Amino acid sequence: MIGLRPMIDLGVHLLRLVAPLQPGEVLVEGWSFLGVSTELGLRLSFAAADAPQHPGLHVELAPAAAPGPFAVATARLHLSYRSPAARPVSSKIGLRVCEAVAQRVRANEGPVLDALARHAASEPSDGPRIREVTVERLLEPGGDPSAPFDTLSPYVGCLVGCRFCYAQSRLSPLRGLLGLPPIPWGSYVDVRVNAPRVLEQELVGRPPRPIKLCPIVADPYQAVERQHRLTRGCLDVLLAATPVPPVLVLTRMAALAEDLPRLARFPRAFVGVSLPTVDDEVRRHFEPRAASVAERLELLEQARALGVHAIAVVQPLLPGPHEALVAALAAHADSVSIDVLRGEEQAGPLFDDPRYAAARDDAWQLQRARALARDLRERGIAVWRGELPPELVDRGERGERDA
Hints:
The chain has 403 residues and is α/β, with parallel strands linked by helices. It has helices at 10-17, 91-122, 167-177, 195-202, 225-228, 230-239, 260-263, 280-286, 293-305, 322-332, 348-352, 362-378, 390-395; strands at 5-6, 26-28, 31-37, 42-48, 57-63, 72-73, 77-82, 130-134, 140-142, 149-151, 155-156, 189-192, 211-213, 247-251, 269-274, 309-314, 335-338, 382-384.
């Protein structure tokens, strides 16, 4: 690992792409500009007139060379849109907002992208795969008006490297814009060494919304955490905040167990693991660098023993005995989130194995998901979809303590 370097603020460049539009201003009738996010790609968020403080529509930008569908094209970028599931908007509205953004992008993309290209040219082509970087912002808003929260990622890039993870297709185009080499997912990570200090500054005056640390852009307990302890540092900052916000930590790694005593000190804390199967042979095939099934279940058991809410996320569904999965989840989790495979990404060769080929089929995923949800509900286990467990949605925004 070499040199500490500031990470280029893509948010500044993203604002320049839509200049002179500024946060708070109206883009088109009924829709105002909320702000930008660069955590999982280049994203602009817009709010509807009836909910002016919350994102109702996102417009996402990617280099024209990036694969995938899009709604509107400029000379050098592709634009797409999506809305939070709780407040879907019509395709007519989505396209209208997307077109209005594209008009501004067309006027600015030349100088803005050329500036990024000059930065890229200054980056060493053989730079380190584990980079120490500094950032100016850390918390990223998420959710919708009914369940707002912030995400927190001390790292970007994930050495766990699950090949079906959709973050890779979001982060790879950004690496290209920054002149970083095209290397496989799971072989690089940016270590945000000033994350605890930035978090401390961002918490000042912030409402006590839930904060979610999860393995979307990076598992918070991947191997580099043992050296840098940034996740631990951020938890200490959160514990010192007034008020202490609710926190949700998701992982595929057993190392979280070392911080369970810290999490037990939070008024409201949730610990979750990804558990797509209870067959450890299947786990080794798809997630060879992650914790074993037994270690993940033990983590949930330890969390419960300390009074911490234990949850599980089943996504995607992978082969393995159904009844054993139901029993394990019912015995160790207070609630379970279930969702299906959202694209194979780089995991195609793993699904080519005849033992696991059925799991790539949409119908197989849906049937398994429905059966799992049904059987868990019959055992009294809450089943949910979305970003937050129901216990946190109900009271998380108010920051209440358990009764």
